[in-house]
């Protein structure tokens, strides 16, 4: 995106629905979301400010306001209170739900509200340090994968987690370039809140290097696979041969991607390991790819 400060409505829509569904677990109708025209509707460095109109599952409308904070701020309750008054003045008559999502490296010390003489103000508070990223990674959907960038990586190397998110997004959305770009844009936005710009940049480079559909060797693999399939098809039936040729082409492409990931994680692989990868099925390659995230040695990937 040319300007990260101003985010497209579609990106805001996806972020709001995903945060409400996966992290806040709100019972919403995701198709009812309406991005509200407010000057606060932007994503800035180190802070996301989302204000949208939704309906719950009973059809009742409400406004959802989400703040993402990556450091403790003693003034946060006052800021949230200010947002509340601004939003309610701009949209009278609608109930408001506010949530603060904390993603900082230090223990959370911010309160979930403020009290004074004659008043008590509260908002929802979610500490992402308590959310293991595997909770979202194992869902293996594009939306959950993107939000995993906000969670606690534990003892996992940040670059390994980011690379895993990228490669799974590519596998899930590779045929839909428009949606793939939208999710990558969301990753870029959310990574600013986690100071993961360097890891994202490295993953971008990796993805460029292994963008198989645009690389000559991938085209050669596909061509060879189709040709072999056609030759077999002359004997066993053209349709079956073509399908097997295309499948083999995909297998070789996925194998090349896994080999590159393992080389980046563990260094040059033994020839026997490369041979094992290149002979594996698509299902086996996907299983090994998931194991790269937590493996400490190449052997653990294949155990």
UniProtKB/TrEMBL annotation:
A Pfam entry, by short name: DUF4351
InterPro entries named among the record's database cross-references: DUF4351 (IPR025587)
Record-annotated DUF4351 domain positions: 247-300
Domain of life of the native organism: Bacteria
Cited PANTHER family: SLL1691 PROTEIN
Name recorded for this polypeptide: Predicted transposase YdaD
